[in-house]
Sequence to fold (224 residues):
Amino acid sequence: GIQVEQSPPDLILQEGANSTLRCNFSDSVNNLQWFHQNPWGQLINLFYIPSGTKQNGRLSATTVATERYSLLYISSSQTTDSGVYFCAISSGSARQLTFGSGTQLTVLP
Amino acid sequence: EAEVAQSPRYKITEKSQAVAFWCDPISGHATLYWYRQILGQGPELLVQFQDESVVDDSQLPKDRFSAERLKGVDSTLKIQPAELGDSAMYLCASSPGTGGTNEQFFGPGTRLTVL
Fold:
Protein backbone atom coordinates (compact mmCIF):
# COMPACT_ATOMS: atom_id res chain seq x y z
CA GLY A 1 0.00 0.00 0.00
CA ILE A 2 0.87 3.65 -0.18
CA GLN A 3 3.45 4.97 2.29
CA VAL A 4 2.94 8.36 3.93
CA GLU A 5 5.78 10.07 5.79
CA GLN A 6 5.43 13.30 7.72
CA SER A 7 8.15 15.60 8.99
CA PRO A 8 9.14 16.87 11.40
CA PRO A 9 7.62 14.57 14.03
CA ASP A 10 7.74 17.34 16.64
CA LEU A 11 7.85 21.11 16.32
CA ILE A 12 7.99 23.74 19.07
CA LEU A 13 7.42 27.41 18.15
CA GLN A 14 6.99 30.73 19.82
CA GLU A 15 3.68 32.44 19.21
CA GLY A 16 3.86 34.52 16.02
CA ALA A 17 6.37 32.28 14.25
CA ASN A 18 5.79 30.61 10.89
CA SER A 19 6.15 26.90 10.16
CA THR A 20 6.13 24.39 7.33
CA LEU A 21 5.00 20.79 7.70
CA ARG A 22 5.84 18.24 5.03
CA CYS A 23 4.11 15.10 3.78
CA ASN A 24 5.85 12.70 1.38
CA PHE A 25 4.00 9.87 -0.29
CA SER A 26 4.99 6.88 -2.36
CA ASP A 27 2.35 6.67 -5.09
CA SER A 28 -0.07 8.75 -7.13
CA VAL A 29 -3.00 10.06 -5.12
CA ASN A 30 -6.66 10.71 -5.77
CA ASN A 31 -7.36 12.24 -2.35
CA LEU A 32 -5.04 14.15 -0.02
CA GLN A 33 -6.32 15.78 3.13
CA TRP A 34 -4.70 17.71 5.97
CA PHE A 35 -6.25 17.47 9.43
CA HIS A 36 -5.68 19.07 12.81
CA GLN A 37 -6.43 16.80 15.75
CA ASN A 38 -7.55 18.85 18.72
CA PRO A 39 -6.83 17.94 22.36
CA TRP A 40 -10.19 16.13 22.57
CA GLY A 41 -9.22 13.87 19.69
CA GLN A 42 -11.45 15.22 16.94
CA LEU A 43 -10.00 15.47 13.45
CA ILE A 44 -10.70 18.88 11.97
CA ASN A 45 -10.56 19.16 8.17
CA LEU A 46 -8.05 21.77 7.07
CA PHE A 47 -7.63 21.13 3.36
CA TYR A 48 -8.75 18.72 0.66
CA ILE A 49 -5.85 19.15 -1.76
CA PRO A 50 -4.89 16.30 -4.12
CA SER A 51 -3.10 18.90 -6.24
CA GLY A 52 -2.50 22.63 -6.42
CA THR A 53 -2.51 25.34 -3.78
CA LYS A 54 -5.18 26.53 -1.36
CA GLN A 55 -5.30 29.13 1.36
CA ASN A 56 -7.56 29.59 4.35
CA GLY A 57 -6.67 32.49 6.59
CA ARG A 58 -3.28 31.90 8.20
CA LEU A 59 -3.05 28.42 6.74
CA SER A 60 -2.15 27.39 3.24
CA ALA A 61 -1.26 24.12 1.54
CA THR A 62 0.45 23.03 -1.65
CA THR A 63 0.51 19.59 -3.22
CA VAL A 64 2.93 18.74 -6.01
CA ALA A 65 1.53 15.41 -7.10
CA THR A 66 4.19 14.76 -9.75
CA GLU A 67 6.90 15.00 -7.07
CA ARG A 68 4.82 13.22 -4.43
CA TYR A 69 4.78 15.72 -1.63
CA SER A 70 2.51 18.19 0.09
CA LEU A 71 3.30 21.13 2.36
CA LEU A 72 1.20 22.80 5.04
CA TYR A 73 2.15 26.35 5.96
CA ILE A 74 1.10 27.98 9.21
CA SER A 75 1.81 31.69 9.50
CA SER A 76 1.72 33.86 12.64
CA SER A 77 1.12 30.80 14.80
CA GLN A 78 -1.17 31.01 17.84
CA THR A 79 -1.34 28.82 20.94
CA THR A 80 -4.62 27.41 19.65
CA ASP A 81 -2.72 25.96 16.68
CA SER A 82 -1.13 23.42 19.02
CA GLY A 83 -2.00 19.79 18.41
CA VAL A 84 -1.22 17.03 15.97
CA TYR A 85 -1.35 17.64 12.23
CA PHE A 86 -2.03 14.65 9.98
CA CYS A 87 -1.65 14.17 6.28
CA ALA A 88 -3.89 11.42 4.86
CA ILE A 89 -4.06 9.97 1.38
CA SER A 90 -6.04 7.57 -0.74
CA SER A 91 -4.54 6.07 -3.86
CA GLY A 92 -5.62 3.93 -6.77
CA SER A 93 -8.83 2.00 -6.23
CA ALA A 94 -8.62 2.29 -2.44
CA ARG A 95 -11.10 4.74 -0.95
CA GLN A 96 -9.93 4.66 2.65
CA LEU A 97 -7.41 7.17 3.87
CA THR A 98 -3.90 6.12 4.86
CA PHE A 99 -2.57 8.45 7.53
CA GLY A 100 0.95 9.58 8.24
CA SER A 101 2.28 9.44 11.77
CA GLY A 102 1.60 13.13 12.32
CA THR A 103 3.48 16.25 13.40
CA GLN A 104 3.05 17.29 17.03
CA LEU A 105 3.02 21.11 17.06
CA THR A 106 3.42 23.06 20.29
CA VAL A 107 3.06 26.85 20.19
CA LEU A 108 4.37 28.59 23.28
CA PRO A 109 2.94 31.94 24.49
CA GLU B 1 -23.27 22.95 9.47
CA ALA B 2 -23.75 19.19 8.99
CA GLU B 3 -21.58 16.98 11.17
CA VAL B 4 -20.89 13.32 11.81
CA ALA B 5 -22.36 12.30 15.16
CA GLN B 6 -20.94 9.60 17.43
CA SER B 7 -21.89 8.20 20.81
CA PRO B 8 -20.84 7.63 23.45
CA ARG B 9 -17.91 10.02 23.60
CA TYR B 10 -16.19 7.99 26.30
CA LYS B 11 -16.56 4.37 27.35
CA ILE B 12 -14.84 2.48 30.15
CA THR B 13 -15.37 -1.25 30.32
CA GLU B 14 -13.78 -4.34 31.76
CA LYS B 15 -12.14 -6.95 29.58
CA SER B 16 -14.46 -9.69 28.34
CA GLN B 17 -17.44 -7.30 28.34
CA ALA B 18 -19.32 -6.25 25.21
CA VAL B 19 -19.28 -2.64 23.95
CA ALA B 20 -21.06 -0.88 21.11
CA PHE B 21 -20.46 2.42 19.37
CA TRP B 22 -22.90 4.37 17.22
CA CYS B 23 -22.30 6.67 14.26
CA ASP B 24 -24.68 8.90 12.28
CA PRO B 25 -23.01 10.22 9.12
CA ILE B 26 -23.69 13.51 7.37
CA SER B 27 -27.08 13.32 5.68
CA GLY B 28 -26.84 12.00 2.15
CA HIS B 29 -23.33 10.61 2.50
CA ALA B 30 -23.22 7.17 0.90
CA THR B 31 -19.85 6.02 2.24
CA LEU B 32 -19.18 5.41 5.92
CA TYR B 33 -15.87 4.44 7.50
CA TRP B 34 -14.82 3.21 10.95
CA TYR B 35 -11.20 3.92 11.90
CA ARG B 36 -9.26 2.99 15.04
CA GLN B 37 -6.55 5.25 16.43
CA ILE B 38 -4.07 3.94 18.98
CA LEU B 39 -2.40 6.58 21.13
CA GLY B 40 0.53 8.19 19.31
CA GLN B 41 -0.40 6.84 15.88
CA GLY B 42 -2.54 7.85 12.94
CA PRO B 43 -6.01 6.33 12.45
CA GLU B 44 -6.29 3.02 10.58
CA LEU B 45 -9.34 1.72 8.72
CA LEU B 46 -11.40 -1.04 10.31
CA VAL B 47 -14.38 -1.21 7.94
CA GLN B 48 -15.92 0.71 5.05
CA PHE B 49 -19.56 0.73 3.93
CA GLN B 50 -21.07 1.81 0.64
CA ASP B 51 -24.74 2.39 1.52
CA GLU B 52 -25.61 -0.76 3.50
CA SER B 53 -22.93 -2.98 1.97
CA VAL B 54 -19.48 -3.72 3.37
CA VAL B 55 -16.86 -2.92 0.74
CA ASP B 56 -13.72 -3.43 2.84
CA ASP B 57 -13.44 -5.19 6.19
CA SER B 58 -10.03 -6.75 5.62
CA GLN B 59 -8.58 -5.08 8.75
CA LEU B 60 -11.53 -5.84 11.03
CA PRO B 61 -10.74 -8.54 13.66
CA LYS B 62 -13.83 -10.55 12.85
CA ASP B 63 -13.50 -12.95 15.76
CA ARG B 64 -14.53 -10.15 18.13
CA PHE B 65 -15.57 -7.13 16.06
CA SER B 66 -18.73 -6.67 14.03
CA ALA B 67 -20.19 -3.72 12.17
CA GLU B 68 -23.50 -3.05 10.49
CA ARG B 69 -25.27 -0.31 8.59
CA LEU B 70 -28.67 -1.87 8.15
CA LYS B 71 -30.59 0.89 6.35
CA GLY B 72 -27.59 2.54 4.77
CA VAL B 73 -27.72 5.47 7.18
CA ASP B 74 -26.38 5.11 10.72
CA SER B 75 -23.96 2.40 11.79
CA THR B 76 -23.00 0.38 14.85
CA LEU B 77 -19.59 -1.09 15.68
CA LYS B 78 -19.50 -3.81 18.32
CA ILE B 79 -16.70 -5.51 20.23
CA GLN B 80 -17.36 -8.75 22.09
CA PRO B 81 -15.44 -9.62 24.16
CA ALA B 82 -13.32 -6.52 24.70
CA GLU B 83 -9.60 -7.02 25.31
CA LEU B 84 -7.03 -4.74 26.92
CA GLY B 85 -5.47 -4.05 23.51
CA ASP B 86 -8.74 -2.60 22.22
CA SER B 87 -8.21 0.57 24.22
CA ALA B 88 -8.14 3.28 21.55
CA MET B 89 -10.09 6.08 19.90
CA TYR B 90 -12.76 4.84 17.49
CA LEU B 91 -13.49 7.35 14.75
CA CYS B 92 -16.33 7.37 12.26
CA ALA B 93 -16.10 9.26 8.97
CA SER B 94 -18.35 9.78 5.97
CA SER B 95 -17.97 10.99 2.42
CA PRO B 96 -20.59 11.92 -0.15
CA GLY B 97 -19.76 9.72 -3.10
CA THR B 98 -18.49 6.41 -4.22
CA GLY B 99 -15.11 7.42 -5.52
CA GLY B 100 -11.86 7.75 -3.65
CA THR B 101 -11.69 11.40 -4.57
CA ASN B 102 -14.36 12.41 -2.10
CA GLU B 103 -13.43 14.38 0.97
CA GLN B 104 -13.94 12.57 4.26
CA PHE B 105 -15.43 14.18 7.36
CA PHE B 106 -14.85 12.79 10.84
CA GLY B 107 -16.97 12.62 13.94
CA PRO B 108 -15.72 13.47 17.46
CA GLY B 109 -14.80 9.83 18.19
CA THR B 110 -15.41 7.41 21.03
CA ARG B 111 -12.51 6.95 23.43
CA LEU B 112 -12.56 3.37 24.75
CA THR B 113 -10.68 2.25 27.85
CA VAL B 114 -10.61 -1.46 28.65
CA LEU B 115 -9.61 -2.31 32.22
User: Anything to note?
Assistant: Residues 48 and 55 of chain B are 6 Å apart (CA to CA). Chain B touches chain A through 29 residues (CB under 8 Å).
